[in-house]
Amino acid sequence: MLDRAVIDALFPVDLPEPDHWEQRYPPREVPDGAQITRFGPSPTGYVHIGNIYVAMIDQNVAHRTGGAYLVRVEDTDQARVVDGAVELLQRAFDFFGIRADEDDTNGGYGPYHQSQRETIYLTYARQLLREGKAYLCFATADELADIRKRQEAAKLPTGYYGTWAVWRDADPADVQAKLDEGAPYVVRFRSPDTLKPRAEFTDAIRGPLSAEDNRNDAVILKSSANPLRLPTYHFAHAVDDHLMRVNLVIRGDEWISSVPLHLQLFDALGFTPPTYAHIAPLMKQISGGKRKLSKRKDPEAGVEFYISAGYPTEAVLYYLRGLANGRLAELPLPEALEAPIRLEDCGVAGPLVDLVKLEDISADHIATLSGEQILTALRQWAATYDLDLLPVLEDDSARALAALAVEREGVENPRKDLRKWSDFRTACGFFFPQLFTLVTADDERLSGLKLTPEVIRAFASDFAAKYQELDDPQEWFNQIRALAGDHGFAPNAKEFKKNPETYPNGSIREASQIVRVALTGSTRSPDLFAVTRALGTDEVLRRIHSLTA
Ligand code: GLU
Fold this sequence. Notes:
Blueprint (H helix, E strand, L loop, with lengths): L3 H5 L9 H7 L11 E4 L9 H16 L3 E4 L13 H11 L22 H13 L3 E4 L3 H13 L18 H10 L4 E4 L9 E5 L3 E5 L7 E3 L11 H11 L4 E5 L6 H11 L5 E5 L3 E4 L2 E4 L10 H7 L3 H12 L1 H4 L3 H6 L16 H13 L3 H15 L3 H7 L1 H9 L18 H5 L24 H14 L6 H14 L6 H6 L9 H13 L7 H8 L1 H12 L1
Parallel strand pairs: 1-2, 8-9
Antiparallel strand pairs: 3-4, 4-7, 5-6, 10-11
Helix pairs in contact: 8-9, 11-14, 15-16, 15-17, 17-23, 19-24
The chain binds glutamic acid.
The site of glutamic acid has 5 residues, from loops.
GO molecular function, one term: glutamate-tRNA ligase activity
Keywords: Aminoacyl-tRNA synthetase, ATP-binding, Ligase, Nucleotide-binding, Protein biosynthesis
Protein name: Glutamyl-tRNA synthetase
């Protein structure tokens, strides 16, 4: 073991002792059973939908137990830190309304950026060195690569342990010689000399678990050659979660295998370990099975996908809650958003993210909103994602409301063609003269009707001449029926089937389709009478006239 003087000389002279931090960050005064949770994003410039999923669970569990939810930016891997990444995270959390109770803007247990907690980590690294629970390791990258190669060749577990760990019990004189040379070093945790037969712990989601105990001497403080002496994830986790008085660590299940090491670290530091809850990752169905939703392969893995497409926040949150706790998917949205998320109800197999299901949920949700509510959300979305649509909505909000009312207001089964705000142009864009491209008789969009442009022109000009804005839908339609009769269309499909040769242009179906395509640009649309009411007669006639040109 190194002399205390040698160890202390490696650290700033005024580095506080552990007691200082213990007093600076006292245990929290919270009710019994209150859970203090945290989310620890790495600021890599990408926000995964799984981040929102976990943060949502963190916040819910903390709030319903009278605890607190904090966000700690895990930026110890400085090479991966991207400018603006924290803002991006903030934007995503804001969008989903998942605000931290504590972060750098507010909270007594900060700083909440790991890169600003260097002094704290140094205190505890020095402490472990002084107690012989950590040691300096001068192994170079080449030496470590060589160890790894030999372990792989011998089919042994890779790592720095046992006889491979040459600096674990190094002669203090050799250490001193390296220090005198100015050789860079890392600080490694000295895994306990006597290991437990198995490391055992209880996961709040998975119940009792056990694993082979850790015998790897993990790096806890990265290279002394770095300008900032930052810790590895493992060490920062133990120090931060202890000092921030976090008692429930909810995190991805890729960390389960690190729990034995983490328990050893908490023990060596004299800290009480938190309860762990390891969340299964969000999955995607692929042919022949499922795999983790992938940042590289799946656009829907990124939160930007949901925000830019304009899925309503509530719909996405409701969907995510249902993935976390299946029973919440059975409840109506407003109740599900209020109901607690229970860790014990989280599955151990990763739930599948199914966009078709999300779209259904979203369409159902939008169908419950008023025109005003939709317009407000739509405007907010368009202000970032559809700058051409925004002024149209601003200038013509009466028309937008009229369009949104068609087959939605006062009907039993409202239309569900809005699944996200970016559907608005397709579903309702035709109501706006600014967004509509007039249809001419030889337009592609009419080609499916198999009518000559002459027939269409003649029908349209007669329509324009005789058109009446009528209040009764049946009467309104009768005028089209009469007009269709005048132009050789069968009055109904049955009649057409009986005598197809009498009606070379088809039936009332084709005649109505001429009107539908002229007014909406599409062969499928909401009820035509309702459409004409929302468009207004002038606009109806302008569109019909275009067929005659
Ligand atoms: N920064 C870690 C990550 O991005 C957080 C893991 C944890 O929550 O402990 O995976």
